[in-house]
Design a protein that fits this description.
about 90 residues, about 45% helix, Glutaredoxin, 4 helices, alpha+beta
């Protein structure tokens, strides 16, 4: 399983900003983008997993982080680095 999954669309600036933040953290290569605007099944999966309909919806490992604002809050609190350090990089 991919370490970081982000449900997104092709025209979402917050999705792009979340991907950029994760790339700056050095984990961009571990990011799997799931385009919910191209697949109804993926949209249904996103809503079932996150209980939200907005994008992005970000999962790090099994943890639902939330959207871009939630990701930034984790980063500002210093918790994002800890969460990313716990990823299996093998």
């Amino acid at each position: 399983m991919t370490a970081i999954r982000m449900y997104c669309t092709g025209i979402c600036p917050y999705c792009d900003r979340a991907a950029d933040l994760l790339a700056r953290k050095g984990v961009g290569d571990q990011l799997e983008k799931i385009r919910v605007d191209k697949s109804r099944e993926d949209m249904i999966e996103m809503v079932e997993r996150s209980q939200r309909r907005s994008v992005p919806q970000i999962f790090i490992g099994d943890r639902h982080v939330g959207g871009f604002d939630d990701l930034v809050e984790l980063d500002m609190a210093g918790e994002l680095d800890e969460l990313l350090a716990g990823l299996d990089t093998a």
